[in-house]
Amino acid sequence: MPAAVAARTAGTGADVLPGADDDGFFGIRFESIGGLGAHLAGQILAEAGVLKQGLNGSHFSSYGSEKKGTPVKSFVRFCPADREVRTSSPIESPQVVAVFHEALARSFDVAAGLSPTGTLIVNSRLTPDEIREALGIRSGTVAVLDALGIALEEKTRVNTAMLGAVVRTCPFLDMEAVKETIREKLSVRNAGVVDANLRTFDRGYSELRTMTWPPAPGDAGRPVQRAAPAFGYLDAPIGGVILDPGNSIVKNLSTSRQGFLPSYDPDTCSHCGICDIVCPDLCFVWSENGDGEPAVRLLGIDYHYCKGCLKCIDACPTGSLTELREEAGWAEEHRVPLFPWLELGGTA
What DSSP string describes 188-252? Predict the structure, then answer.
């Protein structure tokens, strides 16, 4: 074993894992969407702890259709070297939760199961106090990091910035061990991106902003969320019966956006319709032919259905659609409803 690695693996007893749960495990959960690199970040973190620091640990991810924009959870579990990891269950009561995509909080409780002394890290430009108020956090540590801004400046992804933030909040993790693992992991794929990702990691570590609130009396932390089966053997429906027919009209795709959306300038638009042809979600809103108009006109975009693929920007021949970094509330302010009657609570 190299001397540098041996030095880091010395003293990896139970005292190295402050905040471990009753079973002796320290759990870290990444809440993300496909395309932001949460799975790779979990791999790097687990390999650094196990192979370079002598801890025992495990990593796995949970995702559905494995496509860009869909929800992803990645789990990393650590324990001292004298313990064994004999569980592969999802981490329901983590000590650290890292939210790669702020908009996920609109869909479910990203901090579910977090202890009163746990740490919540959010990729956001809001302050820790604003995040705490928005999510109803009563106690513990809330940390924020503009990981997307860092990634844009360094031309990387948000995952290495979030890794830096996680390492800063976990004192038993060796910063240099994680950086060494990043270098090894990424050099196999593309050696040209290693330096930029190491800078991104360093900035994520140094630019993290944190605030801590002591546990309130009687605060047991966030309740664990666990999906229950919809049916049992006594109430299962007859085979072939479709109880909930599919309808995407109420589907909100805004949480699929990775921080960018198309901005529409009607003054330069030729209303050619090419954007509508390439849009996979039909989120462009057109006027009906009438009121003296010679043809249908593009009124705007219903961002409720826009997942930020930006194909329309590439296809637009007039430059009327441009890429914009999404700010909180911008989409709601500039949205043109595709189905106005839904806004009134009506039916078609």
Answer: HHHGGGHHHHHHHHHHHHHS-EEEEEPPPTT---SPP--PPPS--TTTPPPTT--SS---GGG--
Decide: residue 44, CB within 10 A, 0-12 exposed, 13-18 middle, 19+ buried.
Answer: buried
Measure the CA–CA gap between 200 and 310, rounded to whole angstroms: 25
How far lies 3's CA from each of 6, 9, 23, 44, 54, in Å?
5, 10, 31, 21, 13
Q: What is the pTM of this model?
A: 0.82
Distance (Å, rounded) from C-alpha 77 to C-alpha 60? 9
Q: What is the pLDDT of residues 175-231, one digit of tens each?
A: 999 999 999 999 987 888 999 999 999 999 999 999 999 987 777 778 888 777 778
What's the burial of 155, exposed, middle or buried (CB within 10 Å: 0-12/13-18/19+)? exposed
